[in-house]
Structures are given as C-alpha cells and as structure tokens.
C-alpha cells in the first residue's frame, strides 16, 4: 500500500515539475485613459517550473581567468555571453532598483496609524534599505537614488554599486521652456548645460562603486519629424538652421511631405548630435565610468539604423521595457547585434491588485497578488539570462507611488514595509543568477 503511494507521489511530483505555470494578468491600454485589457493567463516560468527544474545552485565562480588592469566597472564578452566586470576583476550583473530615496514626510512604518509623522532618522532608513537589499538579492541602486544618503555613512556599503541619471536634455528643456516636439539639441546653450550638469559629479570620477551615467530618461526620439523643425521658420534658430543644412547635404527638398524613411534618417542625425554632446561632456570630467546613454522606451530600440548609431557612442544600451510580458529572444538579439553593445533593462515592473491602490498611473501590467509579482519577476529575469546579451536589470521602483494616482510599483509600501512574497521570489532567482547563466550556457552553448 505504502509502496504504491510512494510511486504515485513521485510520478505526480515529476509531472508537476514539468507543468507550465501561469499568472492571471491584464495590460494597460495606452490609447484609452485608465483602461485595462481583460484578464488573461500569462506564462510564468520560474526557478522551480522551467527547463531548469532539475537545476541545483552551487557557489558561482566569478573569476574571468583573464588579465585585469581596470579598477572600474567595464564590459567584456566571454565566448558568447556579455558580462560586466567589477573593479575586483570578477564577472558581474547589475541587479538593482530605482528611485531609492527617503521622503521628507511619510507614514510611520512601525504602527498602523496613518497620521503623518516626522521623518524616520536617516540612519535607521539607510540600514533598513541595506537589509532589504540583502533579503531581495540586490547588489545596486539605479537611477534617481539618493546616493550620498545611502553611501557616505554606512560601513558595509562597498558591496553595492550605483548609477547616475544626468537628465541632460530633460533638465535643459525644463529650464529653457522648449516645446516637446523639437529636441533643441543644436542650441549652444544645450552643450553648456550638459557640461555644467556633468561637472557636478567631477569628484565621483575615482569612485569604484559608480557603475556609470545615464544621460536622459525616455526622450521621444521616435516622435521627431523634419516638418516640426522646419515649422520653427526662424533662420536665427540653430535647430531650424541645422535642419535646413542637413536637408541640403542630403539633397532633399526643403518642403514637406517627408517620407518615413527620411524622418528616420533625420532622427539618426539628431541622435548622433545629442550623443556627441552628452558623451563629450561626460568624458571631459570622467573617462573611468560607463556611458549608458539615454534610457530608451519608444520604437527607436527596434530600428537597426538608430541602434547602430547609438552603439557608436555608448558602452551599454539602456532599455525601459513595458508593453510586453517579457522581451522576446529576437528583440534582445537585435539590440546587441545592431548596436554591438550589451544591454541593461533599466526599468520594468508589475503591479498587484490586492494592495488597494488604484494602480492607474504608469505603464506595466496588473496581477492579483504579490506572489504573482514575484513570479512575473522570475519569468522576466529568466528570459534576460537566456539572451546572453543582458548585463543587468533594474526594477522600478523602491517605494509605491502615492497620492491620487497611487500604484503598487514598489518593493515597499507607503509605510516602508516590504512585500515579503515578492521579496522572497526575487531573492530566489537573484542569488543564483550567475549559476543559472552558466547552466543556460551549458544547455545552449
């Protein structure tokens, strides 16, 4: 009796390990405000239910077995896989979260009282963050993080890296009041602004914990049109002048309509000028750290000409990825093939319904529970590890969005309480990411 029961249990467990896992989810429809699609079953591979179901983690070998002379983060391709190489000469993945900062006023994390109180002491907050990072298996801090607060007064901060978002064009546009249809990168003042912004970080050039610089976030390069620049209709305007000169050099007519192909060529021209200014500004003050360029979101990431131009200036291609459940193998292969550089997913997340937040703001998908969020995370990261071109992923963000458009984007809620089910599943894949990469490479050399 017991013998047959054991056999049945073994057969059942093997079938379970081979069973596809799913998560109910619905997608934000961007063309319709505050509207989501219907609920749909989405695949959710994880470290227990996947082609790696029999995989057992061992201590990773991070040595690269190659001469090492650089004392700052850099990239390297080993056989068919790209890696970051850390200052110690070890292979490295950037596993981080964005917007890690303490708000000046918030709700207490210690009681259920919803009254606003004085800020938690910064030292208590710093240690709570580092404790959470250990629990989630994170090793870095992404864009918009409060670097001085996190790093300058914590003894064990050497285990973590960080990134800087310069916000070159975004900041200049806000300061100058430029219209959004025209990226005013040909203004002489734009170059001056970039140099001034980078100069703020000149003392960071010897910091071995700094990964590198993002130059901007989600600039709409794909919305650029020649006709919008010509509509400036002012010979004294450097953006109008540069456009006319480019059209003449291309032997194109100076009047519309312009074809899609012509607009794509013009976008490449604008991108190249933008990258010349931003990269030169960085290199003038810091030649030690990685240039990660503008964090892409729109259709430009799927255009070979655009990505080839980008790859001539950046060390890493930064992708904010939403709209699809996970990047496809072909997309990821294209990003690196076209640019010649590895990529970093600089933003991704999913929201859960069970938090009581309205979850209207932002991109991304909606699922039911924090466990579902964790399964989404594992499924997404597995696809990145399979690509061989991804050198890291940054979750957006540390804390839930608050206010009228509150959304469950964070690792912690408005009380600074973490979501244990999400954190547990993040750790389950993050802490064995190197071993998983090795196993995937053995299965698909």
Describe this structure in words.
- It is a single chain.
- With 445 residues, this protein is an alpha/beta fold.
- It has one domain (32-222, 275-443): Glycosidases (TIM Barrel, Alpha-Beta Barrel), CATH 3.20.20.
- The protein has 13 helices and 17 strands.
- The protein has helices spanning 2-17, 122-136, 147-151, 168-176, 188-199, 226-230, 238-249, 260-285, 304-311, 329-339, 370-387, 420-430, 433-443, and strands spanning 22-27, 40-43, 74-78, 81-85, 91-92, 94-97, 106-107, 116-117, 140-141, 161-165, 210-217, 290-295, 317-320, 343-347, 350-352, 365-367, 390-395.
- The strands form four sheets. An eight-stranded parallel beta sheet has the order 12-11-10-9-6-17-14-13.
- The longest helix is centred in the middle third of the chain and has 26 residues, at 260-285.
- The radius of gyration is 23 Å and the shape is globular.
- Mean pLDDT is 87; it is low at 1-19 and 104-118.
């Amino acid at each position: 009796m017991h013998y047959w029961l054991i056999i049945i249990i073994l057969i059942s467990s093997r079938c379970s390990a081979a069973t596809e896992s799913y998560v109910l989810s619905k997608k934000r429809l961007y063309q319709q405000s505050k509207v989501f699609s219907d609920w749909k079953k989405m695949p959710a591979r994880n470290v227990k239910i996947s082609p790696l179901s029999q995989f057992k983690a061992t201590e990773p070998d991070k040595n690269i077995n190659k001469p090492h002379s650089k004392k700052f983060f850099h990239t390297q391709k080993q056989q068919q896989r790209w890696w970051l190489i850390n200052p110690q000469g070890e292979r490295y993945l950037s596993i981080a979260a964005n917007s890690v900062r303490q708000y000046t006023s918030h709700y207490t994390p210690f009681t259920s009282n919803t009254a606003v109180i004085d800020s938690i002491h910064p030292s208590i907050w710093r240690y709570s963050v580092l404790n959470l990072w250990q629990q989630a298996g994170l090793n870095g801090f992404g864009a918009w993080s409060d670097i001085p607060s996190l790093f300058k007064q914590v003894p064990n901060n050497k285990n973590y890296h960080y990134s800087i978002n310069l916000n070159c064009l975004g900041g200049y546009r806000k300061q100058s009041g430029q219209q959004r249809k025209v990226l005013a990168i040909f203004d002489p003042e734009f170059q001056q602004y970039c140099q001034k912004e980078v100069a703020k970080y000149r003392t960071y050039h010897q910091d071995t914990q700094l990964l590198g610089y993002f130059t901007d976030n989600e600039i709409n390069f794909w919305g650029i049109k020649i006709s919008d620049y010509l509509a400036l209709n002012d010979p004294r305007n450097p953006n109008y002048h540069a456009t006319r000169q480019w059209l003449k050099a291309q032997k194109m007519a100076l009047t519309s309509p312009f074809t899609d192909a012509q607009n794509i060529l013009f976008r490449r021209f604008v991108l190249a000028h933008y990258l010349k200014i931003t990269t030169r500004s960085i290199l003038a003050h810091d030649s030690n750290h990685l240039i990660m360029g503008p964090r892409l979101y729109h259709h430009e990431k799927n255009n070979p000409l655009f990505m080839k131009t980008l790859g001539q200036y950046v060390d890493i291609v930064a992708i904010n990825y939403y709209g699809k459940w996970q990047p496809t193998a072909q997309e990821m292969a294209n990003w690196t093939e076209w640019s010649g550089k590895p990529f970093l997913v600089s933003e991704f997340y999913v929201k859960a319904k069970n938090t009581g937040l309205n979850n209207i703001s932002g991109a991304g998908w909606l699922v039911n529970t924090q466990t579902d969020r964790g399964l989404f995370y594992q499924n997404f990261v597995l696809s990145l590890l399979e690509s061989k071109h991804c050198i890291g992923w940054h979750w957006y963000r540390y804390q839930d969005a608050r206010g009228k458009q509150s959304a469950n984007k964070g690792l912690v809620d408005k009380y600074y309480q973490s979501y244990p089910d999400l954190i547990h599943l993040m750790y389950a894949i993050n802490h064995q990411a190197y071993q998983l990469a090795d196993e995937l490479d053995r299965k698909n050399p």
